[in-house]
Description:
Blueprint: E1 5-9, E2 12-15, H1 19-32, H2 37-44, H3 50-61, H4 72-85, H5 89-94, H6 101-125, H7 128-134, E3 154-156, E4 164-168, H8 173-183, E5 196-200, H9 222-231, H10 233-240, H11 244-254
The protein binds a DNA duplex through helix 3 and helix 6.
Amino acid sequence: MGRNSGFEKDGLKKGMWSAREDHVLKNYVKKHGPGNWGKTARETGLKRCGKSVRLRWLNYLRPGIKKGNITEDEEDLIIRMHKLVGNRWSLIAGRIPGRTDNEIKNYWNSTLRKKLAEQKEKESEVSRNEMVKENLPFPVEDDGHQHLTKCDVVLGGGGGGGGLMCFASNVNVEEDHQRRCLGGTSTDTTILSPRVGVGTGGGANNNIEPTGDDLNYNAMTWNDSIMDLNGGQLYMSEFLQTEFSKFWEETDRFMNFEVGGCSTINHELPNNWDG
DNA sequence: AAGCCCGCCAACCGCATTCGC
DNA sequence: GGCGAATGCGGTTGGCGGGCT
């Protein structure tokens, strides 16, 4: 498996690592600690470039590396994280102990992408809009607007104040949406019906407001939300420190969107839920 | 049995970012 | 601030191995 073992190019060894090379690298790192990979490569006499040495250590030799199949829980987390951050493999790997970005990337490209595509294919066979419409107290016509899907999470970065907040809306966003559409000023890209969101800090302009009425035309688009995260490493890192199991639990409780169409089912927030 | 195909995954590569001087 | 080296990251490559014909 993998590259062929031990051919040389420009005086540097390429391809698969031998057991002896692993042994040498392990011993060296044990003595001197990880890092300074160029020096490590030179002093071990491994005839590998620093990059190769670093990669071998991080992806294979480093203590705590978990080998073997990805569990269902891990897979679930990968899918959810990927929805949030996209191909940020190192970020995703950071939330899954013992797994490397390379492993997750490979797993995604070889297994999950295909799996999800098949799943989506199946789902598209069902007329979801019809199902959803049945749950609404008034007739709905599809207006082609972009809507959240069940697993989407609305993220907003806020200025000032640390910590995370999680909010949810208990307005009937569908009704709200229809009302605003009648007003004739909505846009195609506005997220019209967020039910649950997370943001950092409080009260900043670019937080998605938690009420349908306030969720106006300056609301963030989905892409804006992601861009905001990318632009705010601090917020993202704070977010990634959250207890995900609890977070998803809350998310699942309130997000009952179905894919496509105007599709919310009104949920009242529990009185004691304070986000 | 032999040849072919394809999925898996370790490793490579190029680019971006960070660090140290 | 500029520059080179080191490090980090994500896309891609390519060979092994198993399944299929």
